[in-house]
Amino acid sequence: MYRDAPDPWHLAERWYERRKYDLTVASLPLPRYRRAFEPACSVGELTVRLAERCDRVVACDRVESAVATARRRTSALPHVDVRHLTVPGQWPPGHFDLVVLSELLYYFDTPTLQSVLGLAVDALEPGGTLVTVHWNHPVPDHRGTGSTLARTVGSVPGLTLTADHREDDFVLQVYERDSLDGTAAPSPAAREGLV
Predict the structure, then answer these.
(1) Strands 170-177 and 159-166: what pairing?
(2) Considering the entire predicted model, what is its pTM?
């Protein structure tokens, strides 16, 4: 698809996409993150928004032309590193306090999906945030929808669901990795002493 157009889904133009990205960033429970990972970043529309809330962003895509476009879009942001990688085989080293899996998981068969989710949880620091957001309509190339993926991600041990936003078109969920003693991360209100 990228051979015919630099932005085949019109991610930069569609109100649907811009609104979804803004909701994704607004759902983050912390005001600031140290190190984020965004696989399947495509042309970098969400990457730019994440960069506003993160000290460092590692983004990647398997399509070289998408990586080139994302690099151009983030060229003025020295704390953003866009790489040509294919997950799960090429997962960046180190830990993250934010992992964003957006419009990605429904492309994987069950074993690969479990591998990606395992890598994401293993890479998350205790208390770290995992965000998933996926199209919720059947598509021939997709192996699930936002709703079916929500059930799968919800069954992963070590994660606590902290936000669940569902619309006809997409499902956006926020999970936080449990602390080392197994306790769930505090809510944004609890972090500020409101409850």
Answers:
(1) antiparallel
(2) 0.93
